């Protein structure tokens, strides 16, 4: 949602009244939630109705020493369709692989 870019999102609520920022901070501090996953209901661009959404978050530091929270999310996280995955694949493999690529990119930029 472009209208949210550059805005202070500390008090933004999902459709059920949950404070998303507080949920993210709590997830980042939860040692049992290593990827800081949060689940909420949000507006899908171009959709009339809000949809379930899940997002994961990480703390990172810029080369200038600025601390940031970086995250990414997906709509309809529980909806599975035939052909979306292979039953014999290792769960979490793709997420771990993407995390490794992100880590390498951040490490390269911090040199």
Structure description:
By secondary structure, the protein is of the alpha+beta class. The protein has a single domain (2-82), classed as Beta-Lactamase. Helix content is 24%, strand content 24%. It contains two helices and three strands; from the N terminus they run αβββα. The chain has helices at residues 20-29, 93-109; strands spanning 38-43, 50-61, 67-75. A three-stranded antiparallel sheet has the order 1-2-3, with helices on one face. The radius of gyration is 16 Å and the shape is globular.
Question: What's this entry about, in short?
Answer:
The chain has two helices and three strands, in the order H-E-E-E-H. The chain has 111 residues and is of the alpha+beta class.
- Helix-strand category: alpha+beta
Q: What's the β-strand tally?
A: 3
Strand content: 15-25%
Report the CATH C-level class: Alpha Beta
How many domains? The number is 1
CATH homology group: PAS domain
Helix count from the secondary structure assignment: 2
Mean pLDDT equals: 77
Our Rg estimate from Cα atoms comes to 16 Å
CATH topology: Beta-Lactamase
Low-confidence stretches: 81-97
The appropriate CATH architecture is 2-Layer Sandwich
- The amount of helix comes to 10-25%
Mind describing the biggest β-sheet? 3 strands, antiparallel
Along the chain, the helix and strand elements come as: HEEEH
């Amino acid at each position: 949602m472009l209208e949210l870019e550059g805005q202070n999102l500390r008090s933004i609520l999902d459709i059920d009244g949950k404070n998303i920022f507080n949920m993210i901070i709590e997830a980042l501090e939860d040692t049992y939630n290593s990827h800081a996953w949060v689940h909420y209901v949000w507006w899908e661009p171009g959709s009339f109705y809000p949809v379930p959404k899940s997002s994961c978050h990480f703390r990172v530091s810029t080369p200038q020493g600025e601390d940031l929270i970086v995250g990414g999310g997906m709509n309809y996280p529980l909806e599975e369709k035939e052909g979306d995955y292979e039953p014999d694949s290792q769960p979490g493999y793709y997420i771990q692989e993407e995390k490794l690529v992100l880590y390498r990119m951040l490490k390269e930029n911090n040199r």
